[in-house]
Design brief:
2 helices; two-stranded antiparallel sheet; mainly alpha; single chain
């Protein structure tokens, strides 16, 4: 009887312990009213949104002009500034960014 209980609990324990390892690659899609991604927006890795895919900087600058007249275009076809991607709080006022 004890062996049967042990072997019944063992698969349950394995599933519960494997849960966090399986959850690492979970992609959560949050849809909020009023939140939109516009063509030309950039993600934190510097890639551009073209309306369907995140594109690398080289691709974007070669193909950007064809998106200029799109209603959701809010980006720029110019090269991004060479400065830091993020300016720490208070540093922009001091002229450090």
């Amino acid at each position: 009887m004890r062996k049967a209980r042990f072997f019944g609990v063992l698969p349950l324990a394995a599933v519960l312990l494997a849960g966090p390892a399986l959850a690492v690659d979970v992609d959560v899609d949050v849809r909020l009213p009023g939140v939109r991604i516009h063509i030309g927006d950039r993600d934190r890795d510097g890639r551009y949104w073209d309306g369907e895919h995140w594109r690398e900087q080289g691709w974007w600058h070669e193909n950007c002009p064809r998106f200029r007249n799109h209603k959701d275009f809010r980006g720029s076809c110019d090269a991004p500034p060479n400065g830091p991607k993020h300016c720490p709080p208070g540093q922009a006022k001091k002229g450090n960014c």
